[in-house]
């Protein structure tokens, strides 16, 4: 750890020093980036940088280096700014650098010859939607451990220290207690303790009435955390909407940035100043929210996140490969444990547990023209009613880093905004619940759906869900046209009968046990798991999805032969669709065991479990004959 | 140049202006409301009110506030002014002269000039004129060229005289014989184009001259460069030149105001995304879609101040959005006595328009950019939200400021475009019948690549296999879709009364569920720029056609177009065609043959173009295709609609081992091949896209003699097949289909002639499709009447036979007025050798009922 953390505490000083040295040689910009990249490459150094996700905004020093784990929710228009400008005061006429700053210092000589206009773009970033409480907590705890106290004011931090102690001393086992389970309900009104640690901007920095009219535009309802306007200087084309990034940048909370929208404006000013009259108040509010609520971040370095599981090394470095190879040994045993756990959760149904496991590690790994490959939407039918699905979701939520439960009641389907829509008045993309980060688990609870009328927005929502499942894309509504955004979301549908939504694979649940008290039953199962065990599951699920996979020529041949054979017996029984699905199952099955190539055995197993599943669905069909 | 009579008026005005100038310049200097650096030179210029204030040569910084001491502008200077500035120079042009001072004028001067707020406050740009040598040190640049007409506008290399001359020469001489622009319709292409336009102006009286920049460029590249780089200076010069020329020619013309030149098509029609700081203050053309327009904003051009003490009045012009209020009355020297009189100030119209990048030229995964555009004067309300337009204008950037009293500036500029010219790109799509104007531009290299590809003998197979590579086999279907993507040649027979001849190929895919029909549709939808994808289940007739909406704000009725109109010149993919309600399907009748959509709703009666190809997919009614039934019976679609499809394909599971093996291989490969391997194997989707776009735009094949003969033969042959069995096996519609397909195939080859090989392929494909869809399952023959009348000839014959047998049987029973339905059915079945289904029996009953032989009431059959 270097003695001075100037590059964290005063990054602008570093930038300015480099600018001053450069003598207007444009190369200094690249140097700055290199410097910060180099600093961050050092071991552990990125964990010294305080994170906006974990630390309340008012504990952070303005103009210091911070990081932010986020999703790019909207991309604003590019803006031109003064890259280099000259001060107006003739006695101290110097060139200043305007990069990484929102506001110029001292008077600017606008007529100077040396002014350089440059371009940058603003991204509206929100914390990763649906991030599980455990992921937040773990990243918070690890951050609290390493962040040097220089970045906080210790005295003000008292409360969070207490909190840390509290958490550390707490017996691990009771931490995932019933209260915890209940409190982390889908709409995230978590327990009071966590509210304090999550840097909820609305509560700590502003009275509630102030934040109420400011819509921070989170994709999911009930989300909290800081939204951020990120100013991007380099590599504009490399970023895409809905990317998950870890951004390192200079925090700017200058109050000048806040545009106060006066209810009464001087009409003559309005008339004469064209720059003011062209923005609607809505637009101003969306694009220049108070910096205390939506801080600005001047990006120095951004790292695309493959996943947001804090238990895994995030960057694909040597670190990670070492981690992976060490974990691969354990893979099979962890899988067995997880399978046993899921079997208990699914009321003793081993086959359904197997499929759920495969679903949880599925991932769209590539697209062939319009066809997404690797998606594995699971429809668990025959779910017991009475909040079983809710419990099931909570258990899934404990396992994956990102998830969201959409209760498909008539009311929500008719009223909720699923598809993001462009609001041309405020000139921003109004988010919807389907604007999710990659690999988010979307839990569609169809058991909540009752009979009744879907109105037009309900139909649109259902269509959007159908498109999402079949093509892994969401058509954002730009009112004059639609725009297609590919996504990568694991959709799990729970339903009573067969789901009305399409799915890759339907598994009717066959409970082997019928516990008299479902809640108690699930809670007991849950309690029986140690945190260390759960953490292992979490690592396992995130890791299995990142593994590479291939099929050898030999096995290809075998699969082909097999397919021809199957068709020979009864061409109607096996279609191309079935082969598609079996190939995906085989892939996931192999990966779940840590095998990166398909073996003959793997293929036979995949065939076998698919056979079991199909016999079960057919059985179901013959039971209630009216099923299509 | 300009008539001397105009001078007095101008001179007076100038004198009026002067007191205001010092303040305004000083203010501009300290406030620094200047455009960003690339504009700086001119920004600086314009911040300097008058020539005398120009103390140094252009190289030095003259705008520093220290220079702007008010003392510089002492009264003696004022008298110098008029002689210093040439009245015809652009400095004078464009000043608000709505306030005519009553001086008699003629010619150019007789027509009031109209302000051009789109060009900004150029009137203040200093320029040294040719008649008098400037008194100041300006000569650094000027003196050496003082004798010639080489003086330039400060900060540019534009010499007004030369520029004017060049432009006049351009107007008088420019001829573009190859012109095919719609705007030039009716003009003689061998005469100077713009002189004809001037003539038009003199007749029509609309004082606007649109000038295509590419014309200027081909005529005089240097002039073009100046126009692009210094539009603010050059365009007024153009205006001047035009007006002189015009009034010379048509001295008696009366125009509302002087002619304004509106250049458009600034060479590169740029993407909004590619605008960068270097474009500031340059003339640009960008394309986009209007998403919002503001209310009309009256913008003050000139403020009128009156002294409360002595009633002396003065006028102050707006300088970049600001008015410098004179602090002292010049007449009575009272301080702060001047008050603004609103209704004597001059205003101009202004409108803010937001334009969004058109979805076609956006990188995937990003959101579209928007740009603010200001329209002035008569360009206000020219465009509506939803219009796709090309905008030519000047790109501007203004620094932002939170508080005018604050010295800290937010280091951001606000950018906008002052529009000079609008051009709607989709206008003709709705109203005209010409080819699209927004042609995709291809680079030389790209065209070379495409042509190379086209010259390959197997291009047809290559392209068809590149189409949706993830879908296995179905080669003929892919070929059919490929031809649909290219389309036939558009022909106009309106003179012979036939009207338009459909060039679009319609295709219906039917078959078992799960045979990747939807996937094909999705692929096509993603491939074509103007594709629409709808599902029969989810769309109503309204959603397909168009509906009328009342705008909640303006109460104006707005026509909102649906999928079919939106996919004009594209492909409309309709999934689950069979699930569509009958009323929805019925709108397709018109679209699929006449290629128009008639709308009569809420007082709006119109006919919209819907030259769209329809690619539909239908599932069989019984969820599984029944090979024992005809196509019509399987999908239960009205034959009137079916006959409008050129090609109907069945996508069935072939169920044979070799196929299975290939399919399995294909699918497994899909799951393990890496991205690169796939790239190698197949053509890039982008290349395919460009290939299609190129062929659609530039290739218009015509039938040659041989091909026509081949077509005739093919048609005769098709007719012959049936005639032996008393069936009609082809209709003129089939011939038309053949022609279209042959043309499309010629397009695939980039050939301007339809040759025999095209006809051969068209025939083959058509036959394949017919073989699949129009084979009579009972006889095994291809029977086109299945598709055209909904029933095969044999089926009809059999129906008649059953009816006859039934009648005979009833007659043989003697006089029984009423019979039991079930009994009759059983009897008939017993009597007949062939199996008779209930359907057939009922059909026979119906036939007899039609003959008025019997009636069926409930379970009894009565004879009449």
UniProtKB/TrEMBL annotation, chain A:
Name of the protein: Mini-chromosome maintenance complex-binding protein
Positions of the UniProt region annotated as Disordered: 152-217
Amino acid composition bias (Polar residues), ranges on this chain: 169-187, 198-211
Provenance organism: Oncorhynchus mykiss (Rainbow trout)
Main location: nucleus
Any one cellular-component term (Gene Ontology): nucleus
Gene Ontology molecular function: chromatin binding
Pfam families for this protein: MCM_bind (PF09739)
InterPro entries for the chain: MCM_complex-bd
Keywords from the UniProt entry: Nucleus
Record's subcellular location: Nucleus
Top-level division of the source organism's lineage: Eukaryota
UniProt GO BP: DNA-templated DNA replication
Homology family: Belongs to the MCMBP family.
TrEMBL record, chain B:
Domain MCM C-terminal AAA(+) ATPase positions: 459-667
Enzyme class: hydrolase
PROSITE patterns: MCM_1, MCM_2
Region of interest (Disordered), ranges: 1-121
Secreted among keywords: no
EC number from the UniProt entry: 3.6.4.12
Keywords from the named record: ATP-binding, Cell cycle, DNA replication, DNA-binding, Helicase, Hydrolase, Nucleotide-binding, Nucleus
Coiled-coil ranges (or none): none
InterPro entries: AAA+_ATPase (IPR003593), MCM (IPR031327), MCM_4 (IPR008047), MCM_CS (IPR018525), MCM_dom (IPR001208), MCM_lid (IPR041562), MCM_N (IPR027925), MCM_OB (IPR033762)
One Gene Ontology term of the molecular function aspect: single-stranded DNA helicase activity
Example GO BP: DNA strand elongation involved in DNA replication
GO (cellular component) term, any one: MCM complex
CDD domains xrefs: MCM4
Subunit (UniProt): Component of the MCM2-7 complex.
Purpose of the protein: Acts as a component of the MCM2-7 complex (MCM complex) which is the replicative helicase essential for 'once per cell cycle' DNA replication initiation and elongation in eukaryotic cells. Core component of CDC45-MCM-GINS (CMG) helicase, the molecular machine that unwinds template DNA during replication, and around which the replisome is built.
Protein name per UniProt: DNA replication licensing factor MCM4
